[in-house]
């Protein structure tokens, strides 16, 4: 009896410790970024592209990186949805034999685990072969490859959770497989699909390695798909490497902006999936 | 009304045979109850009657199920038409992820009924069902021009038929998931009826319900049997006695005994039936 109470206390303590560790690391990241970057954060930082004295810590801002990152992540998310959604449905038992589906899942999991610098190197080789320069197009395509397995597997898992009995209701009414998929399974898994999209977007906007060679970097906002494009992760990377303290501060300000974007996206995804769950039985 | 005959029906999962050659004629216009201990193949038998078993990869069906003389397992058979004709009420109600209204309209919509057909159906139904009962409806179908109200009438009618109308008429567009389980089960009944089946298969339709809701569902079956052939799987003997006109007793995948309820319950021929009815085996 005595031991069972100890056991209870020990495991509770372990949980509290891990929770504290997680919350503390998030808090310390926020504190460091705010402490170092907040003073450099200003309206011109958000709205202006780098000016003449930028790299000496004087004028201009990182609008090029903010807009560039949004272009890259939105473009990649959009392309990834076009492939992920049908693929995630195709992996279900109605459409694909279990063995084939599981093999595909294994491949996607390997792709998920592949470091993004590998994607970057791969994209670079392909672009060289095609005679493409580092550009928005190259960056978007490479980033799409990075987030595609994440988005597909996340969607696949939520779609797999739809109970067979619910699908039976639809089939029993005489619905076809595709009617069941679109009218019942899609609706039932919509909140999870929204979460999967946001998860992939968050991963995409924060990735630096895959776009290092493929998107390049520039002080300007791109005007076409073939222009090079700046991004927040690379802005942080380049600015933090300078010896000038003011520019280093700007790196932390950029990190803060990136954090805020990711935070807003998570919040939006929470709200969206809550709205979409109105009809779902839990 | 439809007549169902099983001819040497054998069903196996992988290599394990669950039903061993069932031969029986299910009477029309009555409630047939299928009783037997758990795991004896009751649900498998029921799902074999509208080919819901097709959804499971590992199931093999031999023998014939004749509905109005047509073998439903014939390779030429139209599964969608079969399922329209043979409605299914699952053990748990599983509301579709949409409003109460859309749950009922789901079947008529996928079968693409025209306004004219719906109007005709409503008028016919009013003549056939409960002609002796007072109708609480305010709408007069004959006086309606071709507005979008046909579907409204249809939805109202089936909700009346399932005894749910009065409880939900003010919130038809609320999520069906918000209903109580008892209401959801009557919604499932209305949803199954809206497809205009000839046969209703019900798999332990009251097992998830409280006694009062269960009584309501049983009452609806009693009212419906004049127009439908009803097959109910139940593990509740008292329920089988209350609603059954004809009884099938399954034991370890074998159809041990079948006959009119009065005969089977009072003077069973087989020793195993007697033992089950008296509660010696369960």
Structural commentary:
- The complex is a heterodimer of chains A (282) and B (282).
- Chain A is mainly alpha-helical and 282 residues long.
- Chain A has helices spanning 2-37, 43-47, 63-90, 98-113, 116-130, 136-160, 164-172, 177-205, 209-212, 232-240, 245-276.
- Chain A has two domains: 2-39; 41-45 and 59-279, MetI-like fold, CATH 1.10.3720.
- Helices cover 74% and strands 0% of the residues of chain A.
- The longest helix of chain A has 36 residues, at 2-37.
- The two termini of chain A are 37 Å apart.
- In chain B, 36% of the residues lie in helices and 23% in strands.
- Chain B has eleven helices and ten strands.
- In chain B, β7, α8 and β8 (229-233) form a beta-alpha-beta unit.
- Chain A binds chain B through residues 93-94, 97-98, 163-176, 179, 183-184, 187-188, 278-282, and chain B through 50, 52, 55, 57, 80-81, 83-84, 87-88, 90-92, 94-99, 106-107, 110-111, 175-177, 188, 191-192, 195.
User: How many domains in all of chain B?
Assistant: 2
Ranges of chain B where pLDDT stays below 50 over 5 or more residues in a row are 131-147
Tell me which protein chains meet in the greatest interface and how many residues each side has.
A-B, 28 and 30 residues
Shape of chain B: globular
Q: Which structural class fits the helix and strand makeup of chain B?
A: alpha/beta
Order of helices and strands of chain B: EEEHEEHEHHHHHEHEHEEHH
Enumerate how many helices of chain A there are, as a single number: 11
Which CATH architecture of the largest domain in chain B would you pick?
3-Layer(aba) Sandwich
Q: Give the helix level of chain B as a range of percent.
A: 25-40%
CATH topology tier name of the largest domain in chain A: MetI-like fold
Fourth-tier CATH superfamily name of the largest domain in chain A? MetI-like
Q: Work out the count of structural domains of chain A.
A: 2
The share of residues in helices of chain A is over 70%
Based on the structure, what is the oligomeric state of the protein chains?
heterodimer
Helices of chain B, by number, come to 11
Write down how many β-strands of chain A occur, each being a DSSP E stretch of 2 or more residues. 0
């Amino acid at each position: 009896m005595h031991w069972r109470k100890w056991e209870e206390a020990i495991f509770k303590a372990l949980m509290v410790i891990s929770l504290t560790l997680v919350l503390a690391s998030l808090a310390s990241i926020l504190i460091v970024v705010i402490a170092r970057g907040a003073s450099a954060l200003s309206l011109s930082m958000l709205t202006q592209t780098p000016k003449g004295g930028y790299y000496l810590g004087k004028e201009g801002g990182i609008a090029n990186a903010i807009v560039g990152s949004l272009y890259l992540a939105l473009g990649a998310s959009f392309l990834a949805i076009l492939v992920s959604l049908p693929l995630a449905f195709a992996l279900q038992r109605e459409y694909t034999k279990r063995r084939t589906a599981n093999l595909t899942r294994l491949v996607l999991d390997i792709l998920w685990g592949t470091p993004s610098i590998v994607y970057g190197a791969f994209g670079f080789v392909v672009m060289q072969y095609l005679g493409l320069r580092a550009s928005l197009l190259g960056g978007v395509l490479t980033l799409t490859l990075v987030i595609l397995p994440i988005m597909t597997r996340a969607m696949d898992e939520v779609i797999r959770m739809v109970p067979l009995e619910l699908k039976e209701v639809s089939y029993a009414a005489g619905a076809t497989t595709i009617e069941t998929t679109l009218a019942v399974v899609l609706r039932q898994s919509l909140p999870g699909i929204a979460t999967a999209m946001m998860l992939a977007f968050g991963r995409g906007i924060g990735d630096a390695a895959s776009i290092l060679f493929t998107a390049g970097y520039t002080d300007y906002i791109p005007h076409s798909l073939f222009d090079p494009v700046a991004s927040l992760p690379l802005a942080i990377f380049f600015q933090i490497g300078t010896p000038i303290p003011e520019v280093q501060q700007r790196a932390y300000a950029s990190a803060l902006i990136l954090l805020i974007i990711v935070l807003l996206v998570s919040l939006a995804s929470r709200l969206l999936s809550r709205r979409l769950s109105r009809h779902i039985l839990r | 009304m439809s007549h169902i005959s099983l001819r040497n029906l054998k069903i196996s999962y992988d290599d394990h045979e669950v039903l061993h050659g069932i031969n029986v004629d299910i009477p029309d216009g009555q409630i047939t109850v299928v009783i037997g201990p758990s795991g004896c193949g009751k649900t498998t038998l029921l799902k074999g009657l509208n080919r819901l078993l097709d959804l499971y990869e590992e199931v093999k069906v031999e023998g014939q199920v004749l509905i109005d003389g047509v073998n439903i397992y014939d390779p030429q058979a139209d599964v969608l038409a079969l399922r329209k004709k043979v409605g299914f009420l699952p053990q748990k109600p599983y509301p579709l992820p949409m409003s109460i209204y859309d749950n009922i309209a789901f079947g008529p919509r996928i079968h693409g009924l025209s306004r004219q057909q719906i109007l005709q159906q409503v008028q016919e139904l009013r003549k056939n069902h409960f002609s002796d009962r007072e109708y609480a409806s305010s709408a007069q179908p004959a006086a309606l021009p071709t507005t979008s109200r046909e579907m409204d009438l249809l939805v109202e009618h089936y909700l009346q038929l399932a005894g749910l109308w009065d409880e939900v008429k003010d919130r038809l567009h609320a999520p069906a998931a918000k209903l109580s389980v008892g209401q959801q089960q009557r919604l499932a009944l209305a949803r199954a009826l809206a497809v205009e089946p000839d046969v209703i298969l019900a798999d332990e339709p009251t097992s998830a319900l409280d006694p009062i809701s269960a009584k309501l569902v049983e009452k609806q079956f009693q009212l419906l049997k004049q127009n439908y052939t009803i097959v109910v799987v139940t593990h509740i003997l008292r329920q089988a006695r209350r609603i059954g006109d004809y009884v099938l007793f399954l034991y370890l995948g074998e159809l041990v005994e079948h006959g009119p309820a009065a005969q089977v319950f009072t003077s069973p021929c087989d020793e195993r039936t007697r033992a089950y009815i008296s509660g010696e085996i369960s």
